[in-house]
Amino acid sequence: MSNEIRFITKNFHEYDTSSIDSYIGIGGFKALQKAVSMDGEDIASLIAKAGVKGRGGAAYDMGRKWSQARAVPGERKVIICNADEGEPCTFKDRELISNDPFNLIESMIIAGYTVRAQDGYIYMREEYSHLRPLLQKAIHQTEAKGFLGKNILGRGFEFNIHLYSGAGAYVCGEGTALIRSIEGKAGRPRMKPPFIKQSGLFALPTCVNNVESLSIVPHLLLDEKNFYISQGSGESIGTKLVSVGGNVRHPGVFEIPFGTTVREIIYNLAGGLQDDRKLRLIQFGGASGKIANSDILDTPYTYEDLKKSGVTVGSGAILVIDDRTSVLDFLRITQEFFSHESCGQCTPCREGNLHIKLLLNKLAKGEAKHRDIDTLTKIAKIMTMSSLCGLGESAQNALLSAMRVFPETFDVGGAE
After folding, report:
1. Strand 236-237 relative to strand 232-233: parallel, antiparallel, unpaired?
2. Which residues are within 8 A (CB) of 55 and not within 5 positions of it... i.e. 6 or more apart?
3. Same domain for 170 and 252?
4. Measured between alpha carbons, how far is 38 from 158 in angstroms, rounded to an integer?
5. Where does a domain end: 262, 290, 322?
6. Separation between Cα atoms, residue 345 and residue 337, nearest integer Å
7. Is residue 15 part of a domain?
8. pLDDT tens digit string along 22-51?
9. pLDDT score at 1
């Protein structure tokens, strides 16, 4: 039996993604037409009622976010679509852009109308440069049809979309670093406050949303039968795109109802482990996510159930590792990533990543002592509490969770 649902993905393979007329033919821009007949606050309330949480990793209430952005005073405001998607094993946004670009454009226009913004920016990761022509063409065609520009649908509403590409820095997935990158500055995070919603891109009030977060909006507006809110479990309403990768037979992106078990996702949708090998660990939410062992397999995939099990939904990534890779080798590979991607701006992250890398290598050589394990723990906790941005705060999630789930990995015997 399949646990897949087509709600966010219902337009996939249903139209020619290079043609706006093809998109209109399947009902494209009907959601926008409905949106401009509504009050913006009502749109934000509809999203809040559906329980949509930000799909980039922070899981912030999206309806509340739009309502707050709408309330911020300002003659000009900005919407940013964060298509950086730099979290390893996360590729759901790529599928949304590839298979439904016009829906993303429509959702940004609706967002602009809702929060009273005049400009939208799509910030795309460098590795997705092959998708740039597709989005650029979609933007041009939308302008030609009158859905972008001045007096959209005769409502006196003006909105334009600009497409930007990053240079491949993982840290630019963080909102303030992304904004600095668009401004032509080094993509490094800045201190807050001021918060982005009050002073973001070019010091204008700014609302930043993930691709998946935005893409769901047109579908919700047209969901007259309330199918979306009929799905899910507990406080986790609706559906979620998950990207499953690693040592599975059928890696890919799947839209599931919240409440589907981790076992069903891995062994049903993703086909189970390659060559029927034994499961070593699962990492949730990308490289910055926490890890678990096979005990989590029967846990429902919801925000609350995963949290109780010591992990989080995060970016929606599920990385499956079999017994060919040891826990320590996995941690060393993850640490190589963060040591490379740290922007070096703040001391806890810059120095912490370097020293944890050295200590993990020492442990792999069998040279670590008890004091080294204590130092690993101390540095990881300091990074979590005092780093400037989310990179440093979450870089050691895998390490700290491994210490809890796989304590034997850090057993150095009687070495002092």
Report:
1. antiparallel
2. 92, 210, 211, 212, 213, 216, 240, 241, 315, 316
3. no
4. 16
5. 322
6. 17
7. no
8. 999 999 999 999 999 999 999 999 999 999
9. 40
What is the Cβ-side half-sphere exposure of residue 187, based on CA atoms within 13 angstroms?
A: 20
Tell how far CA 244 is from the center of its chain: 14
Please indicate, yes or no, whether residues 217 and 312 belong to a single structural domain of this protein.
no
Percent of the chain scoring above 90 in pLDDT: 96
**Considering the domain boundaries, does residue 129 fall inside one?**
yes
Residue with tokens 């405001």: 77
- Alpha-carbon distances of 324 from 24, 274, 279, 331, 344, rounded to whole Å: 49, 11, 9, 14, 33
What is the arithmetic mean of pLDDT over 318-335?
98
pLDDT digits (tens, 9 = 90+) for 259-296: 999 999 999 999 999 999 999 999 999 999 999 999 99
Handedness of CA 49, 12, 300, 170 (dihedral sign): negative
Q: How far is CA 172 from the centre of its chain?
A: 13
**Domain co-membership, 339 together with 240:** no
Write out the two tokens for 28: 């494209």
Confidence check: pLDDT of 396 > 60: yes
Q: In what order do the strands lie in the sheet with 119-124?
A: 149-152, 157-165, 119-124, 78-83, 206-210
**Inside any domain, residue 12:** no
Do residues 82 and 150 share a domain? yes
pLDDT band per the 50, 70, 90 thresholds, residue 251: very high
Q: Are 206 and 196 in contact (CB under 8 A)?
A: yes
The pLDDT of 126-135, averaged and rounded, is: 96
Could you tell me the residue range of the domain that residue 395 belongs to? 327-410
Place of tokens 């979590």: 384
Query: What is the Cα–Cα distance from 52 to 48, expressed in whole angstroms?
Result: 6
Provide the 3-class DSSP secondary structure of residue 236.
strand
CATH number of the domain encompassing residue 118: 3.40.50.11540
Both tokens of 30, joined, read: 């009907």
The verdict on 357 and 309 lying in the same domain is no
Cα 281 to Cα 324: distance, rounded to the nearest angstrom? 11
